[in-house]
Write a structure and sequence with these properties.
The chain is mainly beta and 287 residues long. It is built from 1 helix and 22 strands. The protein has 2 domains: 120 residues, Immunoglobulin-like; 150 residues, Jelly Rolls, CATH 2.60.120. The two termini are 27 Å apart. Keywords: Signal.
């Protein structure tokens, strides 16, 4: 699930593209358009490690998206992505150090777009991280095709979280937790990579999404791993399997394969299950 602020941003971008594309006819019958969600343009990934390229495609009022294709050779050859209901993804493994450039195109039952792009990220090296869109950002993970956010029927006490790093120094100020069926109080934690507890706070009873701030912001170091998690005393959490099957890079956040972690009974979560996502989103502040 994408948080409301990010939905507004994406829809604004899409609406602008649709307006431009339909200006010649004065209708909403423009060619399909695509938006990339991950990796952030200009971000850096590791060589030899699969990365998830993912986003959405729309087609005006019809929503009639039949496919999204990706090209790494300037549009000479195209490969289909996995897609469903407008969301799409492609796993790519950079083979060498340097920029990775690609184009996208989307199709409907009656039209196909031109090539969108070029989009670019970097494999290896030490490129400067991309500029942030906001001085404080709550991670907003996108919908992926055929990976719905479900209410897990598990009723055991469990700690659920997200293992991640940052592409720059800053502060973790809190988190957003997408709830499942459990609506009681939640205890939210931030841990270092070795399991040292760095911060803790309690969310009041709620449904939907709970937003919390830690009593004090916690400084984080670029390139180091952290875990943000929460304790669900009777289960009832939200999850999506086969989500972190490759690295996800949404500046300033960097998540590797198997980033969703858990621990039955509570405590520092380290176990993984089918590359699941437990929908825990930290809030990063630059200063």
């Amino acid at each position: 699930m994408v948080d409301p602020g990010e939905v507004k941003r994406i829809l604004a971008v899409v609406a602008t593209l649709l307006l431009i594309g339909s200006s010649s006819t004065g209708t909403a019958q423009a060619a399909p358009v695509t938006v990339v969600y991950t990796p952030t343009s200009g971000s850096t990934v590791a060589v030899g490690v699969p990365v998830l390229i993912a986003g959405i495609a729309v087609n005006g009022e019809s929503g009639d998206i039949t496919g999204v294709d990706i090209s790494f050779d300037g549009g000479v050859t195209w490969s289909p992505t996995e897609h469903h209901s407008g969301s799409w993804l492609h796993r790519h493994t950079p083979a060498e150090v340097g920029p990775v450039t690609y184009h996208l195109r989307a199709s409907s039952s009656r039209d196909i777009s031109g090539a969108y792009g070029p989009y670019e990220f970097f494999a290896g090296g030490s490129a400067a991280p991309p500029a942030l869109r906001c001085p404080y950002c709550t991670l907003s993970l996108p919908w992926l095709p055929n990976r719905p956010e479900l209410d897990d029927p598990d009723d055991a006490a469990v700690e659920l979280g997200l293992r991640l790093g940052f592409d720059r120094a800053g502060y973790v100020a809190g988190a957003a937790v997408h709830r499942g069926t459990y609506s009681g109080p939640l205890t939210v934690h931030l841990w270092s990579a070795d399991g040292t507890l760095l911060a803790e706070t309690v969310s009041a009873s709620a449904t939907g999404v709970s937003y919390v701030r830690f009593p004090a912001r916690v400084p984080v170091v670029a390139g180091e791993e952290y875990v943000v998690s929460y304790f669900a005393p009777v289960g009832g959490y939200a999850s999506s399997e086969d989500y972190f099957s490759a690295a996800v890079v949404i500046a300033p956040y960097v998540m590797g394969r198997g980033a969703g972690v858990y621990s039955y009974g509570g405590g520092f979560p380290t176990e993984t299950w089918h590359d699941s996502n437990y929908w825990v989103h930290p809030t990063f502040e630059l200063s």
